[in-house]
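Bit of a strange request maybe. I'm writing a small parser for structure token strings and I need a real example to test against, not something I typed by hand. Could someone generate the tokens for this chain?
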Amino acid sequence: MTEQMVGFELIKTFALTVPPDYDHDTQLTKFRQQHRRRFSYFNDEITDKKLGSVSHQLTPGQTYSIDLCRITRTVSSPECLDFLKARQAMLVGAQGLSVAWQRNRQEFPRGKWLVSFDGQIVAIGGIFKSRLSKSDYHSEGESWCLDLGCLKFDWNTNDCLFCVREKE
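Reply from user aminoacidic:
Good idea to test on real output. This should exercise your parser:
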């Protein structure tokens, strides 16, 4: 596995331990109920029913290695998928991204979309500078967003790949 391929640069690695009470089938419903008000934008189509079928379901209690890889030029979704395959990354979709946000959001780069692939749908989330005043739901100057993309999209320097791998 190469640490860098043209168009991608590893910027951060951290461990993610999935909570013991994690349930893939209800993760997005629970996430929405617990955190929806904290997001300045939360796509209503991010549901367990619509996004329940992922290539890899996270295992409760297991620790994974998360690699955040900055995209350094415009790349296609197939190029991203090739990069993820070369890194032996698991495609965990919105569920993986939401668990990482719950457990390790301080690791997310500010001002970038994190792109989590699976199947035909791509979950993207990010922490951005906010025009909102400080409130109970946002850190001062920050706004959290969760949205969907698709494989037709190209990705650019505003984006980072969210790579979930077995812990080494």
